[in-house]
Design brief:
Shape: elongated
Structural class: mainly alpha
Number of strands: 2
Helix content: 55-70%
Strand order of the largest sheet: 1-2
Distance between the termini: 21 Å
Order of helices and strands: EEHHH
Largest sheet: 2 strands, antiparallel
């Protein structure tokens, strides 16, 4: 997404093409930041999903639980990630660390 509201697709191995147009309301100075947020929301979601899957692996979860210096803060961060992923995917996720590591969270 460009700050003027143009929506572009950049397929792997293909040529970029404009796929739509968004119309913004609000202040002009907010448009560039909003466009960046929309543009990278899929990447942010994918990265959060990968991180959540990593911390749900049995050996990683065990290491987090074993370190009392980081466990409390890590648990809060992980629960926030889980709640965000539930909103993004529309799926209810099991409490951490009971994620099926073979199941992809989003399509």
């Amino acid at each position: 997404m460009k700050s003027n509201g143009e929506l572009w697709s950049y397929p792997r191995g293909g040529a970029p093409s404009q796929i739509g147009q968004m119309y913004w309301s609000g202040k002009n100075e907010d448009r560039a930041g909003n466009a960046r947020l929309v543009s990278f929301s899929a990447d942010l979601s994918e990265g959060l999903e990968e991180l959540y899957q990593l911390v749900s692996q049995p050996n990683v979860a065990a290491a987090i639980k074993a370190d009392q210096k980081i466990f409390g803060k890590a648990r809060l961060i992980i629960e926030n990630a889980r709640a965000t992923l539930e909103q993004v995917t529309g799926e209810k996720l099991p409490d951490w660390p009971h994620l099926d590591p073979t199941k992809k969270l989003s399509g």
